[in-house]
Design a protein that fits this description.
The N and C termini lie far apart (about 50 Å). The radius of gyration is 23 Å and the shape is globular. By secondary structure, it is of the alpha/beta class. Strands 3-2-1-4-7-6-8-5 form an eight-stranded mixed sheet, with helices on both faces. The chain is built from 16 helices and eight strands. The relative contact order is 0.13. The longest helix has about 30 residues. Helix 9 packs across helix 15, helix 12 runs antiparallel to helix 13 and helix 14 runs antiparallel to helix 15.
Amino acid sequence: MFNKKILGYFIALLVFAVVVIILYLSFKQYGLWTLLYIPQAAIMLMCLYVFFPVLVYFAGYSKIKKMFVLSKPEEDIKRNYFTIIIPAHNEERVLPSLLASLESQVYLKDYYQVVVVADRCTDKTRQIAEIYGATCLNRSSPNTSNKQEALRYAILHFPFTPNFENGFVCIIDADCEAHPHFLQEINRHVAINKKVVAIQSFRYVKNMNESNITKLDAAAEALRNKIFCAPRKLVGASVFINGSGVVFKKPLFEKLLNISGNHLAEDKEWKAYLCERKTIVDYCAPARLGYEAVTDQKTFQKQRNRWISSHVAMLKKHAWKTFSQSILNLNVMQFDFFCSLMQVPRSLLLAFTLLFAALDFMYSPTSFLPHWAWIIMVFGLIFYGIFGFYLANAKPKDYLSVPYFLKLVSGIVKTTVVSFIGKGVSQWKPTRSNDA
């Protein structure tokens, strides 16, 4: 332990020295152009972070493909107990589909229970939950609705029996729909991997064909699962938490709910906590969970405003701490999380790459990279997005939606800027309504 700590401090000092030397030599040779080269270096590193999992995906394609195949039922496998918690704020339209899918699970009903938290609802969410036989908790707190508080309310007010007290908790958003084998696959995963305490399931957009936005969202989700999660699973690394379809051992989940943090980004707060403690989030690819993506640009922008604001808030809160601890403690998991925090949205990354590429071709001293490097990054990001459509099993006509992302870039840029100057969304609001 002592030697490891010394090594961590030595590496930290070495990294600091290398950065200082590079900056010194750059200013000495290029002068103030270095101020333009720094963001370019960041863009290059972000592109490498995006492209590297693609290489792992193709290198391990045969093994990754097998990850997504449903398992054969096993009679003698141990059955675990699952409590499914559904935070719901005025979800009477989408909730029936989710509850029906949970009612249709092939997993034995004695081993799972469904709890709906009707969080300050003014519609028929509570009645619908009761119709489908789910336990419904009515949260009428004067505090503003948010997912973290709804989940905490469920843990505090729902009476867990001993079996379920020692089982797992699964969080599913109300707009989702679980594949009939969802719980069976999760159970098989934790039965085989007994040390696993956190699992992220496979997610996909169930209404992909509704609009250009849902097609783009489906492509992005396919990339998140098959390019970011599956390769990490292949090499034994921890995957990211998406907030819905995530499963925790109940004692760990209770610890996560006691974290004081940003209620816009409970999943990133959880991930920061787990990375610091080197707790791996495993990936269960056969456990499929579909969700309803927003269909119109106005609602999409509202959703992204919340997501980007939460990401920027987490960046400000955790970036330096995570980076420094990752080096001092030799914690690769924290460094990976730091890199994810530093990433800008893919559309914004492409926009910046195009900008610097154009500057390079107009006046070469504005860039420290050769022309061919910018060409590779630009076309790499374009084909990366198109590859997402392929992974989402898009039809040929669906690829016509690719250019539509240009209409969304300006809104994403605006949201990112206002979030960095402290004017972004500061509290949770439901995506599909205007109420608080």
